Protein backbone atom coordinates (compact mmCIF):
# COMPACT_ATOMS: atom_id res chain seq x y z
CA UNK A 1 0.00 0.00 0.00
CA UNK A 2 0.88 3.65 -0.36
CA UNK A 3 0.21 6.45 2.10
CA UNK A 4 0.35 10.23 1.80
CA UNK A 5 0.03 12.84 4.50
CA UNK A 6 -1.73 16.13 3.90
CA UNK A 7 -2.39 19.35 5.78
CA UNK A 8 -5.96 20.66 5.81
CA UNK A 9 -6.78 24.22 6.92
CA UNK A 10 -9.80 23.01 8.89
CA UNK A 11 -8.95 19.38 9.71
CA UNK A 12 -5.27 19.49 10.55
CA UNK A 13 -3.21 16.51 9.35
CA UNK A 14 -5.05 14.09 7.04
CA UNK A 15 -3.78 10.63 6.09
CA UNK A 16 -4.59 9.10 2.71
CA UNK A 17 -3.94 5.58 1.42
CA UNK A 18 -4.33 3.52 -1.72
CA UNK A 19 -4.05 -0.17 -2.52
CA UNK A 20 -3.59 0.59 -6.21
CA UNK A 21 -6.82 2.35 -7.10
CA UNK A 22 -8.33 5.53 -5.73
CA UNK A 23 -6.85 7.36 -2.77
CA UNK A 24 -8.95 7.02 0.39
CA UNK A 25 -9.32 9.49 3.24
CA UNK A 26 -8.26 7.95 6.56
CA UNK A 27 -8.90 11.20 8.42
CA UNK A 28 -6.73 11.89 11.44
CA UNK A 29 -5.18 8.39 11.53
CA UNK A 30 -1.47 8.48 12.36
CA UNK A 31 0.86 6.66 9.97
CA UNK A 32 3.35 5.92 12.75
CA UNK A 33 0.57 4.26 14.79
CA UNK A 34 -0.36 2.16 11.75
CA UNK A 35 3.29 1.20 11.30
CA UNK A 36 3.68 0.35 14.99
CA UNK A 37 0.63 -1.94 14.71
CA UNK A 38 2.12 -3.63 11.64
CA UNK A 39 -0.84 -2.68 9.45
CA UNK A 40 0.95 -0.73 6.72
CA UNK A 41 0.06 -3.42 4.13
CA UNK A 42 -3.46 -4.06 5.47
CA UNK A 43 -5.96 -3.12 2.75
CA UNK A 44 -8.84 -3.44 5.20
CA UNK A 45 -7.81 0.00 6.46
CA UNK A 46 -9.59 1.31 3.37
CA UNK A 47 -12.91 -0.39 4.19
CA UNK A 48 -15.55 2.27 4.54
CA UNK A 49 -13.08 5.12 3.98
CA UNK A 50 -14.34 7.71 1.49
CA UNK A 51 -12.36 8.63 -1.59
CA UNK A 52 -10.03 11.53 -0.94
CA UNK A 53 -10.66 14.98 -2.28
CA UNK A 54 -7.39 16.91 -2.39
CA UNK A 55 -9.16 20.25 -2.75
CA UNK A 56 -7.58 22.70 -0.30
CA UNK A 57 -5.02 20.13 0.89
CA UNK A 58 -1.24 20.44 0.78
CA UNK A 59 1.23 17.59 1.05
CA UNK A 60 3.23 16.90 4.19
CA UNK A 61 6.27 14.62 4.57
CA UNK A 62 5.09 11.00 4.98
CA UNK A 63 6.34 11.03 8.60
CA UNK A 64 6.36 14.59 9.89
CA UNK A 65 8.28 14.22 13.14
CA UNK A 66 10.40 11.07 13.12
CA UNK A 67 11.98 10.28 16.45
CA UNK A 68 15.28 9.79 14.65
CA UNK A 69 16.56 10.55 11.16
CA UNK A 70 19.81 8.68 10.61
CA UNK A 71 21.57 9.61 7.38
CA UNK A 72 24.46 7.70 5.82
CA UNK A 73 27.35 9.33 3.98
CA UNK A 74 29.68 7.76 1.43
CA UNK A 75 27.46 4.71 0.95
CA UNK A 76 28.05 4.37 -2.80
CA UNK A 77 31.54 3.49 -4.08
CA UNK A 78 31.44 6.06 -6.87
CA UNK A 79 30.32 8.85 -4.52
CA UNK A 80 33.07 8.02 -2.03
CA UNK A 81 35.58 8.27 -4.88
CA UNK A 82 34.37 11.76 -5.89
CA UNK A 83 34.28 13.03 -2.29
CA UNK A 84 37.15 14.60 -0.35
CA UNK A 85 37.49 11.28 1.52
CA UNK A 86 38.18 9.04 -1.53
CA UNK A 87 38.18 5.71 0.31
CA UNK A 88 35.10 3.57 0.88
CA UNK A 89 34.45 3.47 4.64
CA UNK A 90 34.76 0.26 6.63
CA UNK A 91 31.84 1.37 8.81
CA UNK A 92 28.78 3.43 7.82
CA UNK A 93 29.24 7.20 8.08
CA UNK A 94 26.14 7.83 10.18
CA UNK A 95 25.05 11.39 10.92
CA UNK A 96 21.79 12.91 12.09
CA UNK A 97 19.26 15.21 10.48
CA UNK A 98 16.64 17.10 12.47
CA UNK A 99 12.90 16.70 11.89
CA UNK A 100 12.59 20.49 11.77
CA UNK A 101 14.42 20.49 8.42
CA UNK A 102 11.83 18.33 6.64
CA UNK A 103 9.68 19.56 3.77
CA UNK A 104 7.20 17.82 1.50
CA UNK A 105 7.05 17.13 -2.21
CA UNK A 106 6.32 20.42 -3.94
CA UNK A 107 7.64 22.59 -1.12
CA UNK A 108 10.56 24.89 -1.84
CA UNK A 109 14.06 23.89 -0.82
CA UNK A 110 15.49 27.08 0.64
CA UNK A 111 18.96 28.35 -0.27
CA UNK A 112 20.06 30.15 2.90
CA UNK A 113 21.41 33.68 3.08
CA UNK A 114 24.58 32.24 4.64
CA UNK A 115 25.72 30.26 1.57
CA UNK A 116 25.41 29.75 -2.17
CA UNK A 117 26.61 26.13 -1.99
CA UNK A 118 23.25 24.35 -1.95
CA UNK A 119 23.70 20.83 -3.34
CA UNK A 120 21.35 17.95 -4.16
CA UNK A 121 21.57 14.34 -2.93
CA UNK A 122 18.96 11.84 -4.09
CA UNK A 123 18.51 8.99 -1.64
CA UNK A 124 16.24 6.11 -0.65
CA UNK A 125 14.61 6.51 2.76
CA UNK A 126 13.94 3.43 4.89
CA UNK A 127 11.17 3.72 7.49
CA UNK A 128 11.40 1.46 10.53
CA UNK A 129 8.38 -0.58 11.56
CA UNK A 130 9.33 -2.92 14.38
CA UNK A 131 11.94 -1.33 16.62
CA UNK A 132 14.67 -2.89 18.66
CA UNK A 133 18.32 -3.06 19.71
CA UNK A 134 21.00 -5.48 18.53
CA UNK A 135 18.99 -6.52 15.46
CA UNK A 136 20.77 -9.27 13.49
CA UNK A 137 21.33 -8.46 9.82
CA UNK A 138 19.55 -11.68 8.87
CA UNK A 139 16.39 -10.43 10.60
CA UNK A 140 16.75 -6.72 9.86
CA UNK A 141 14.41 -6.47 6.86
CA UNK A 142 11.54 -7.72 9.03
CA UNK A 143 11.95 -4.43 10.91
CA UNK A 144 11.31 -2.31 7.78
CA UNK A 145 7.82 -0.87 7.38
CA UNK A 146 8.39 0.81 4.04
CA UNK A 147 10.33 3.18 1.83
CA UNK A 148 10.21 6.70 0.47
CA UNK A 149 12.28 9.20 -1.52
CA UNK A 150 14.59 11.77 0.06
CA UNK A 151 16.67 14.72 -1.12
CA UNK A 152 19.36 15.34 1.48
CA UNK A 153 20.04 18.89 0.25
CA UNK A 154 23.35 19.99 1.72
CA UNK A 155 25.11 23.30 2.33
CA UNK A 156 28.61 22.23 1.36
CA UNK A 157 30.76 24.98 2.87
CA UNK A 158 29.02 24.51 6.22
CA UNK A 159 29.23 20.72 5.90
CA UNK A 160 33.01 20.83 5.65
CA UNK A 161 33.69 23.48 8.28
CA UNK A 162 34.39 20.67 10.76
CA UNK A 163 34.77 16.87 10.62
CA UNK A 164 31.18 16.64 11.93
CA UNK A 165 28.68 17.37 9.14
CA UNK A 166 25.77 18.48 11.34
CA UNK A 167 25.55 22.18 10.36
CA UNK A 168 25.64 21.64 6.61
CA UNK A 169 23.02 18.92 6.79
CA UNK A 170 20.50 20.74 8.96
CA UNK A 171 19.61 24.10 7.48
CA UNK A 172 15.87 24.71 7.57
CA UNK A 173 13.82 23.49 4.60
CA UNK A 174 16.54 21.31 3.09
CA UNK A 175 15.24 17.79 3.87
CA UNK A 176 12.76 17.02 1.08
CA UNK A 177 10.85 13.80 1.83
CA UNK A 178 8.04 12.00 0.00
CA UNK A 179 5.58 12.12 -1.53
CA UNK A 180 4.63 8.51 -0.74
CA UNK A 181 5.32 6.01 1.99
CA UNK A 182 5.36 2.66 0.16
CA UNK A 183 4.93 -0.47 2.25
CA UNK A 184 7.83 -2.91 2.13
CA UNK A 185 5.80 -5.66 0.48
CA UNK A 186 5.59 -3.55 -2.70
CA UNK A 187 9.37 -3.12 -2.98
CA UNK A 188 12.15 -5.70 -3.52
CA UNK A 189 13.73 -6.86 -0.26
CA UNK A 190 15.83 -4.08 1.20
CA UNK A 191 14.85 -1.78 -1.65
CA UNK A 192 17.63 -3.37 -3.69
CA UNK A 193 17.86 -3.28 -7.47
CA UNK A 194 15.97 -0.01 -7.98
CA UNK A 195 17.11 2.76 -10.31
CA UNK A 196 17.79 6.09 -8.60
CA UNK A 197 17.86 9.24 -10.73
CA UNK A 198 18.24 12.96 -10.02
CA UNK A 199 17.55 15.70 -12.55
CA UNK A 200 18.17 19.42 -12.12
CA UNK A 201 16.04 21.55 -14.44
CA UNK A 202 15.56 18.44 -16.57
CA UNK A 203 19.29 17.73 -16.94
CA UNK A 204 20.55 14.36 -15.63
CA UNK A 205 22.77 14.68 -12.58
CA UNK A 206 22.76 11.34 -10.74
CA UNK A 207 22.15 7.88 -12.17
CA UNK A 208 22.59 4.77 -10.03
CA UNK A 209 21.03 1.61 -8.68
CA UNK A 210 20.30 0.94 -5.02
CA UNK A 211 22.14 -2.37 -5.32
CA UNK A 212 25.33 -0.30 -5.53
CA UNK A 213 25.13 0.69 -1.86
CA UNK A 214 28.24 -0.23 0.13
CA UNK A 215 26.15 -1.13 3.20
CA UNK A 216 22.77 -2.67 2.44
CA UNK A 217 19.55 -1.74 4.18
CA UNK A 218 19.86 -4.82 6.40
CA UNK A 219 23.45 -3.98 7.34
CA UNK A 220 22.57 -0.36 8.14
CA UNK A 221 19.78 -1.45 10.48
CA UNK A 222 21.94 -4.05 12.18
CA UNK A 223 24.87 -1.70 12.69
CA UNK A 224 22.78 1.27 13.84
CA UNK A 225 20.86 -0.86 16.33
CA UNK A 226 24.10 -1.75 18.08
CA UNK A 227 24.26 1.77 19.52
CA UNK A 228 20.68 3.09 19.40
CA UNK A 229 17.19 1.73 19.89
CA UNK A 230 15.33 1.95 16.62
CA UNK A 231 11.64 2.82 16.96
CA UNK A 232 8.58 2.77 14.68
CA UNK A 233 8.68 5.72 12.31
CA UNK A 234 12.44 6.26 12.54
CA UNK A 235 13.99 7.03 9.16
CA UNK A 236 17.29 5.83 7.74
CA UNK A 237 18.37 7.90 4.72
CA UNK A 238 20.60 5.40 2.99
CA UNK A 239 23.12 7.48 1.03
CA UNK A 240 23.60 9.14 -2.34
CA UNK A 241 25.52 8.06 -5.45
CA UNK A 242 28.00 10.00 -7.59
CA UNK A 243 27.05 13.08 -9.55
CA UNK A 244 26.49 15.61 -6.78
CA UNK A 245 27.09 19.23 -7.66
CA UNK A 246 30.17 19.97 -5.56
CA UNK A 247 32.13 17.15 -7.26
CA UNK A 248 31.43 18.44 -10.77
CA UNK A 249 33.81 20.66 -12.70
CA UNK A 250 32.58 23.30 -12.90
CA UNK A 251 30.58 22.83 -9.73
CA UNK A 252 26.80 22.85 -10.00
CA UNK A 253 24.82 24.28 -7.11
CA UNK A 254 21.08 24.89 -6.89
CA UNK A 255 19.74 28.43 -7.11
CA UNK A 256 16.41 30.19 -6.93
CA UNK A 257 14.18 29.19 -9.84
CA UNK A 258 15.67 25.71 -10.19
CA UNK A 259 13.60 22.53 -9.97
CA UNK A 260 15.12 19.30 -8.69
CA UNK A 261 13.59 15.83 -9.11
CA UNK A 262 14.56 12.59 -7.40
CA UNK A 263 13.08 9.40 -8.87
CA UNK A 264 13.34 5.91 -7.40
CA UNK A 265 11.90 3.05 -9.38
CA UNK A 266 8.77 1.63 -7.78
CA UNK A 267 8.76 4.20 -4.96
CA UNK A 268 8.05 7.55 -6.60
CA UNK A 269 9.20 10.97 -7.74
CA UNK A 270 10.06 13.80 -5.36
CA UNK A 271 9.96 17.23 -7.02
CA UNK A 272 10.91 20.52 -5.38
CA UNK A 273 11.52 24.05 -6.58
CA UNK A 274 14.34 26.12 -5.08
CA UNK A 275 13.91 29.54 -3.52
CA UNK A 276 16.18 31.97 -1.73
CA UNK A 277 15.75 32.62 1.97
CA UNK A 278 13.89 35.85 2.54
CA UNK A 279 15.74 38.74 4.08
CA UNK A 280 14.93 39.36 7.73
CA UNK A 281 12.40 42.13 8.29
Automatic annotation (TrEMBL):
GO molecular function annotation: catalytic activity; metal ion binding
- Return the similarity comment: Belongs to the FAH family.
Give UniProt keywords alphabetically. Answer: Metal-binding
Fumarylacetoacetase-like C-terminal domain location, by residue?
Answer: 68-274
Q: Which GO terms describe its biological process?
A: small molecule metabolic process
User: Which organism does this record belong to?
Assistant: Brevibacterium rongguiense
Q: Sorted alphabetically, which PANTHER family does this protein's record hold? A: FUMARYLACETOACETATE HYDROLASE DOMAIN-CONTAINING PROTEIN 2A, FUMARYLACETOACETATE HYDROLASE DOMAIN-CONTAINING PROTEIN 2A-RELATED
Q: What name goes with this protein?
A: 5-oxopent-3-ene-1,2,5-tricarboxylate decarboxylase
Q: Which domain of life is it from?
A: Bacteria
Amino acid sequence: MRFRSYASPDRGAVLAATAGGAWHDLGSADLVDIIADGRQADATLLDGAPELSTRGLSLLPPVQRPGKILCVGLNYVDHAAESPYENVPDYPTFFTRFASTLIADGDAIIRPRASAELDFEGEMAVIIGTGGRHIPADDALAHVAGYSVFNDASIRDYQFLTPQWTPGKNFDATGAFGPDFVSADEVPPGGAGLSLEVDLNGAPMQRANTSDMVFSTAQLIALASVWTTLEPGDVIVSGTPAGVGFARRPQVYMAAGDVVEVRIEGIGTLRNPVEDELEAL
